[in-house]
Design goal:
- By secondary structure, the chain is α/β, with parallel strands linked by helices.
- It contains eleven helices and ten strands.
- A hairpin with a 7-residue loop joins strand 7 and strand 8.
- The N and C termini lie far apart (44 Å).
- Helix 10 runs antiparallel to helix 11.
- It has a single domain, classed as Spore Coat Polysaccharide Biosynthesis Protein SpsA, Chain A (Alpha-Beta Complex).
Length: 273
């Protein structure tokens, strides 16, 4: 375990915070991510925003991930490498170990699009002080170590009617106010994939958001939410019913529709392969 009070940016960081500007904590949860973790780390450390701290929660990797993280330990506010109970638990540990007013949960397979990504979010935070979540778009990438664009960009302004139909806020391209999590609670560890969706669902239609039409994060295809579509659907259904966002009858109809669409899409991909 390594701890330090690092907020990279030197004197500029101190001036930024003393001026009352938002401190953003980037939290990365990882496990056996040696092929991608360095690109993720470097994208965060390259940001031109002074007020950033970086927290790494490694679940006890055995493939060299911890050794890569250790090389950058001088730039991290906190990191450890030890077993945890899954992504939601790791994110919650990151929240506990961070100090930022705003929290970004950046997965090890993802990386920030360019050095100005966090500055764009910070400017939006300043302009919209009542927001719970500020976010932009994600660009989907292939899974190679040197990924290529996969032809799709995702992210749109928040609309409750679309959100409950699984049009989620792209969490790797978002920052969430710590005060929102203080108000509604931390991630529910019983969710293995849809924990971010359920977190935002707690506020319902009253969730205060601000969206910018800019790519913030590059996201490799093939993560858990893409591979295990049945589990995504099951967790969506459980969250929607738990928060009474839709009637049980409507949920059954939508579940059948989404399941059929995912099945056809999977068959199409296998045929193309």
């Amino acid at each position: 375990m390594v701890k330090s009070p690092t907020v990279f940016g030197g004197e500029g960081s101190a001036a930024w915070q003393s001026a009352g500007k938002p401190l953003i904590s980037v939290i990365t949860a990882c496990y056996n991510a040696a092929d991608t973790i360095e690109q993720c780390i470097r994208s965060v450390l390259a940001q031109d925003l002074p007020g950033v701290e970086y927290v790494m929660i490694d679940g006890g990797s055995n493939d060299g991930t911890a050794a890569i993280i250790k090389r950058y330990s001088g730039k991290l506010s906190y990191w450890h490498s030890k077993p945890d109970r899954g992504i939601a638990h790791a994110f919650n540990l990151g929240i506990q170990k961070s100090r930022g007013d705003w929290l970004m949960f950046l997965n090890a397979d993802d990386y920030l699009h360019d050095p100005g990504a966090l500055a764009a979010l910070a400017n939006e935070i300043i302009e919209h002080p009542d927001a719970d979540v500020v976010y932009g778009r994600v660009a989907y990438m292939t899974r190679e170590r040197q990924p290529q664009p996969a032809g799709r960009i995702y992210g749109e302004p928040y609309r409750w009617a679309r959100f409950i139909r699984m049009h989620s806020i792209p969490h790797p391209a978002s920052v969430t106010r710590r005060g929102y999590i203080d108000r509604v609670g931390a991630f529910d560890e019983s969710y293995r994939i849809a924990m971010d969706y359920e977190l935002f669902l707690r506020a319902g239609a009253a969730l205060h958001t601000s969206f910018i039409e800019r790519v913030i994060t590059c996201m490799r295809l093939g993560g858990a939410s893409r591979v295990d579509r049945r589990r995504v659907l099951d967790e969506w259904r459980r969250a929607i019913l738990a928060h009474r966002a839709l009637s049980p009858a409507r949920v059954r109809l939508l579940y059948a529709y989404f399941f059929a669409r995912a099945t056809v899409s999977g068959m199409s991909r296998r045929s193309a392969a």
